[in-house]
Amino acid sequence: MSKIVVALGGNALGDTPESQLEHARLAAQSLAPLVIAGHSLVVCHGNGPQVGAIKLAFDTASELGKVPSMPFAECSAMSQGYIGYHLQQAIDEEIEREGGRGIPVITMLTQTIVDENDPAFQNPTKPIGSYYDEETAKRLVAETGHVYKEDAGRGWRRVVASPKPIDIYEKISLRSLFYAREVVIAGGGGGIPIVKRPHGYVGVDAVIDKDFAAAKLAELVEADYFFILTAVEKVAINFNKPDQEDLSLITCAQAREYIEQGQFAPGSMLPKVQAAISFIEATPGGHAVITSLEKATEALEGKTGTQIVI
């Protein structure tokens, strides 16, 4: 049986608690068969819409004087908890429904270690929280020292860094649970970003890309398969053009050539391909596959998806 790490997009989980639980149940229908078949599984999910809603709620309530402002790292922790709860409940129910009794499913609050000197901290790009007019944004910059940028004509928003993950704080516990064949939901939203200080670790305002965090998780547990599940069955070049070509198998070198050509959108397929390369180069013998959620089982059997090899 195989050791599998799955990266599941946050946008696939709905934008309300009710729709998220329903989407989690749909995701469980594709993930539970992997567990029933005897594979070990770690699920790493995104949290973009969810953590944004949490941050916005606290910002709005804080402006009204109702509650204190909430740091972004704490908002990330909250999103991990409630998304993990929904996924955990849905996967457990689906495993039970399919007859796989006695397989534990657990959510691990995960802290992802980043380098405080990562160049990303000098060029924050990830928008979070409320929209403001330009005057208010400039006032907030003066008051807080935070960076605000205009966001696609919709207003000004605070932006934070997106550093690369270098380690997972809970990796010993993660390995223990994984090797015991518990289904582990970990690294939600890329994990809570933390940095090492002389007195210990502290949270920082940042957004870690979920696919890179999942690749690091897969590397640390020495996964056989790293699946990045997205909205399309295969990676394509010349996407949405008359000469679109779906890719079934590419090498890391070919993937880098396509990246140089600008074939993959920065906010969409690019980080997925980069994360797959990262895992493959760090894990000899590992398999990295990008496909749709619905095709996960078929991709494991080699019937579909885009596999990236060394």
Describe the protein in words.
By secondary structure, this protein is α/β, with parallel strands linked by helices. It has one domain (3-111, 178-309): 3-Layer(aba) Sandwich (Carbamate kinase). Helix content is 39%, strand content 25%. It has nine helices and 17 strands. The strands form four sheets. The chain has an eight-stranded mixed sheet with strand order 3-9-2-1-12-16-17-15, sandwiched between helices. The longest helix is centred in the N-terminal third of the chain and has 26 residues, at 72-97. The radius of gyration is 20 Å and the shape is globular.
What general outline do the C-alpha atoms trace? Answer: globular
CATH architecture: 3-Layer(aba) Sandwich
Question: Low-confidence spans: pLDDT under 50, at least 5 residues?
Answer: none
- Reading off the top of the CATH hierarchy, the class is best stated as Alpha Beta
Estimate the strand proportion: 15-25%
CA-based gyration radius? 20 Å
User: Strands of the biggest beta sheet: in what spatial order?
Assistant: 3-9-2-1-12-16-17-15
